[in-house]
Amino acid sequence: MARKGNTRKQSENVDPKYQSRLVQNLVNNILRCGKKQIAYKIVYKALEIAENELNQDALEILEQAILKTTPSTVVKARRIRGSTLQAPRDVKPEVGQSLAIRWIISSAKARNNRGIAQKLANEFIDASKGQGGAVRKREEVHRIAESNRRTAF
C-alpha cells in the first residue's frame, strides 16, 4: 500500500488487431503458461466465427456478451456470531467486467463442442442473445444477492 497519496493505475495495453482493451483482457484471461500468441489466435478465431454466424461486428458481439453477463451485485461470505452468511455487495464496473470475462470463459470450457475457439464463439453468441451459461451464472448470483438483502453490511 502506498504511504503517500494514491498510486496511479497502470495503463492497460490494447490488442493489435481490434485496438480494444476488452479483447486484451479476454486474451490475458485465456492465456496459459505464457503462450500469448496462442491465446490471441484462440480469441481472434472465436470472434471471427461469431462475426460470420451473426453477420455483426465482432466487437459489438463481444461488448453485448460482456454487458449481458456483467453482474451489478455479488455475494460475499461474512461471519456473524459463528455462522457464515452470504452478504450482497455492489460491484465496481471493472470488477464486474472481469467477472463476466471469467464466467464466459469457464462456461465456454464446460461446453461439448470441438475446439476452444468454437466453444468460445458459441458462448459469445449465446451471451449476446441473453442466454448461455455465463448469463445463467449472473442471474443465479443476483437471485442469491436478492434473497440475502437483509444481511447487507
UniProtKB/TrEMBL annotation:
MF-aspect GO terms: rRNA binding; structural constituent of ribosome
Pfam families, sorted: Ribosomal_S7
CDD domains: uS7_Bacteria (cd14869)
Biological process, per Gene Ontology: translation
Domain Small ribosomal subunit protein uS7 span(s) in chain numbering: 3-149
Alphabetical keyword list: Chloroplast, Plastid, Ribonucleoprotein, Ribosomal protein, RNA-binding, rRNA-binding
Subunit description: Part of the 30S ribosomal subunit.
UniProt name for this protein: Small ribosomal subunit protein uS7c
Source organism of this protein record: Chloroparvula pacifica
Source taxonomy: Eukaryota, Viridiplantae, Chlorophyta, Chloropicophyceae, Chloropicales
Encoding gene (name): rps7
